[in-house]
Amino acid sequence: MSWAVAEAPFPNERESGDRYVVQPSADGVLFAAVDGTGHGTAAAAAARIAAATLEAFAGESPIALILRCHEELRGTRGAVMTLAFVHLRDRTLTWLGVGNVEAVLFHTDDEDSATAERTLVRAGVIGYRLPALRAEVIPLKPFDTLVMATDGITPDFADRLAVGGDPQRIADHILAKHWKGTDDALVLVARYLGVPL
Asked: Which structural domains are found in the chain, ordered by start?
């Protein structure tokens, strides 16, 4: 896996309420984008709790992780998040979203084109009200590229996105072109490089 992040806090705030997690475990790598409700110190505190929980239990299923975060975030502002676990041995991605953190998986068809799949995100706030949780499993091919973006990024960030370049360049491009400027923003880009035989 190769990955990169680009982020920006709400203007005039000292810290962002958006966090990311990239945490390897025995079976693969957990990727997550977390958005604490609102912005500022209270949002950042909720996002930190969620990120620490995800890092500590990264080997658990995405549904189990959401449930753990829900318990840990009770009494905070809560958070929304999307998780994606890359199972290296199985060559699959399992993803799940609660709230408005978008995730798109680009399958590279050839040098010039890619097809895209979006995760189904369900309405809710972790720590306050959970929807019914259903994870989806998707087969991976070498060079598939995952892009996650919090709601400080406009939803059209994936339209006509060129995903053949360096993950950091992709993340920086999305932030520069699609940051609303009215909220914290975070973009996480991860590329599956395949499993050596």
From this structure: 2-191 (3.60.40.10)
